[in-house]
Amino acid sequence: MKIKYSNRILLAVIFFPLLGRAQEVKTDSIQEVIVHANRLQIPFSKDNRNVEILSAEQIKQLPVKNLNEVLGLLNGVDLRQRGPFGAQADISIDGGSFEQTLVLVNGAKVSDPQTAHHSLNLPIPLDAIERIEVLRGAAARVYGINALTGAVNIITKKVDKSAIQANVYTGSSFKNRDEEDKNGVYYHAGTQIGAAWFGDKHQHQLYYNKEKSNGQRYNTASQNDKIFYQGNLAIDDKNEMEWLGSYMYNRFGANGFYAAPGDRESEEIVETIFASVGSQHQLSDGFYLNPRITNRYNEDDYRYFKHNLSSARSLHYTNAFSMELNSQYRTAFGDFGLGLESRFDRIASSNMGKHDRNNHGAYAEFRTEQLKNMTINVGAYINYNTQYGWQAYPGIDLGYSFAPKWKIVFNTGSSQRIPSFTDLYLNQRPGNIGNPDLFSEDAWQTEGAIKFQSTNFIAHGGYFYRNIRNFIDWIRADMNDPFQPFNIGKNKIHGINTNFLYTFQHNDIRYRVNLGYNYLHASLEQTEGLTSKYHLENLKHQAKLLFMANNTIWNASVANRFHQRISDKSYFLTDIRIGYNFPFLSVYADAQNIFDVTYIETSAIPMPGRWYSLGVFHRL
Fold it and tell me: I want to staple 516 with a disulfide (CB 3.0 to 4.6 A). Which of 263, 287, 424, 499 is the partner?
């Protein structure tokens, strides 16, 4: 479809009024955020890594209704959906695979040892999110295993007042469903109810969310139920507890999701329970201690023939239990961070068998600002895995302020990814089989960048180089052979990334403009004649332009994004939201993919064309 780019640009600024001289706004909250993408919890303005933050205020204004849609608007993040509205999606960062990105909630790992296909099975409503932090680059020194290309950390809100709220929304393309199943118009609908209780020393919040879609294509209908609860207890001024529990039921038709064209009648049901309990203790003026335990249980029921459960059915039950102890000691010379963690992974599967492995890690970090105009953060993570033995991952971050608002940053470090149980033991002949002889992937990444930060403008531009040894790819030499993973060699990526956030205010209207561009050049040492299952679809060019405007009564936003993959497939998408606030009631309308672009994010699954949504939000 040919579309004039002038129309796209015009639409991107359609809500931009003629302005006189813009007034500077007060310090943006992002500038003051304490970034959890580092265990020392460094203020955003002083961090020397490539970190992007999307705040709750921004999320509220964007034309999005679930976490997957939000992640798709972040710089360097490649979100590849097999089904819209949160049915199933994979996430990767800067050209890595979906297995190489670590997902966390409040710093707790939620990755599933079976496969990273389940990383986004997160029952966290957007209303409960305080912000999303994306840490790009080698993150093993910060988070340990499986943060090879970076990490996405979802920070939830703390209750500040008692309230009851409800959010009801629905949408449609107003077109008949594709293929031969043309009975009815394609639609989706959802409802979310929540309650918060604020006490002097304890706070609680509870959400329930239900979504349903009849599916754009044959056998792609989906439904999911989500429950999320979080509580906080302030024991005294120096001791605090926090606990979290969540449950998700996700059922969807999986036509073409994993094994096209033979999986036309397939279906998948995933149930996930995640819980964590942690506390924060100030033991002295400079010494802080933070213990935490977490548990993630997942059931995955994949039915290749949903009408015949006696054949080609895969049942997987996984459990990951973790314990960690983080500490921080602040001195006049600098801050020290020390910590220990253990993780115990288990799986019982109909086609992988029963397996378990344990992982134990320790880290040490030191950060100082005592050198003139320079900040240094250096540390290492030491890991022992019962399958792969001892490994060490050092790293260093440097920042030099050569002017009041300008800073040059440099960071280099190593990271790794331990193969999932699917990589090692899967037995789905003739489609896919695992390889128990795999080594873990190891990477070294170096990045240099320049940053600018003022009251209302944040800019970042940088270059990075990453070299992954023992890169794991699912390959085959013949079309009749199953795909099988191998450590096929080195995966090298050169990347350029830029991001600009400009915030200003004119009269009573607040404006945000967020522009980002990323370029990746990837090469892979591979024997000729082999067919790869994943890596050939990495992003080459990625650009975004987000524009938001709001005051106390209304808000409007336009989200533009351009993707071009190594395969030269490209697409440009534009979404719009307009919202209006009444007393205790908000109404919003979205138009997504307004140019009705035909595009595919993964496999051969077409995504929806032009889509309209209407929602009502009530808070008491």
Answer: 499
